[in-house]
Description:
Number of domains: 1
Shape: globular
Radius of gyration: 16 Å
Order of helices and strands: HEHEEHEHHEHEHEHEH
Largest sheet: 8 strands, parallel, barrel
Structural class: alpha/beta
Strand order of the largest sheet: 1-2-3-4-5-6-7-8
Strand content: 15-25%
Helix content: 25-40%
Amino acid sequence: MTSSTPASALDAAALARYIDHTLLKPEATQADVAALIAEAVELGVYSVCVSPSMLPLTLPADADLKVAVVCGFPSGKHASAIKAAEAALAVAQGTDEVDMVIDIGAAKAGRFDLVEADISAVRAEIPAPLVLKVIIESAALTDDEIVGACRAAVAAGADFVKTSTGFHPAGGATVHAVRLMAHTVAGALGVKASGGVRSNADALAMIDAGATRLGVSGTRAVLSGAAVAAPANPAAY
């Protein structure tokens, strides 16, 4: 989609190519992941996003589907060496993309040098053309902290900045945060909106604000134009 094309002009097939079809519930089973993959292929999404213990995945031979995995999830309070090792294992097990969580406390303290170093440690284990997305937990940050975290991601060589884990009590993606993130990275990185994208209107609003990828669990409903019921945890996917 170009800047001159409104998100409202996207049909379901085009919108599907923005979506990381996501399953990160702690109680998820291998059978659940197999169902996720089957649904992802049916719906024509860009990727599936799963927990690292679910790797390696078995995809249909002809599937046009990427595999994404989370890292340092959901708190981000893992040592950088542990995040790097987790990313390296995911790469060895066939992931195409890694969605890492920053140390949110370091961002809150204004230590963006530490945020950059944390991201750099993971980036070192993810060779191009594999993709690194950086989850900044935007709902827990001020605007200045969002800007600082995004700049750290750019400096560390990430490919995307991402709003949310979907598990933080502060909430998930907002149009304001996506717009601010997109303005800050200015096209140098992609922007992924995740956490609370539960309707077609939500998805299109995020894309209009500058999102180039979406993390969605209720993908079928989002593509059909229906709304997904909010879970008990308002931030959850």
